[in-house]
Input
Amino acid sequence: MRTNRPLLDTHPEFSVIEWPTFHEYRVENWRLARDGSSRIIRGTVTWTWLDLCLPLLISFLWPRVGNSTALVSIGVVLSIFAWSRCNQVLYESVLVFPALGIQLETHYGHPSLGPLFVSRRFIHISRLEDFVIHEGLRRWNVRYFLAAIKRSNNGSILFHVAFENILPYFPVLLEVYTRVQSSVFPLQPRDSREIP
Output
């Protein structure tokens, strides 16, 4: 296994992990500030003052609450709070298996605990039509995104968006796009796959 960060100066959240049989292109849920200060902007929340005050508040309220309805409501609030803390997107990956296909992954969890849940979508090479950079509108902004175009069993076309929660900047998308194209479609000329 070999790990490198090809865009270390501008996008250190992007890394390439090369295994003997596949490559992983990973984007973590943080980035550098765009103002040139090299400040890190995190997309996840670790520990806040609310996390520290919540056990104190519960220990204060627990002896004073006598009915079961109030205890159930405290339990529901705590469950929702714990779920929201442990259901953050930590990183997203595109795994390329040159002879088999590609896999899109999203890893959820708490930053201090690591990944707790993983969402995976595998697209077999025989169903993969293309892997493209596309653009979409988000409010008043144009955002670029990567999409895997898949042909389903009944012949319809499906789009699977890579990095759909983090939406990294264009230089990261371009780096992943060129590497996926060279790994999955190495012998096809680029012009034969473009839509007129």
The two ends are 40 Å apart (CA to CA). Helices lie at 49-61, 68-86, 170-184. Residues 108 and 166 are 12 Å apart (CA to CA).
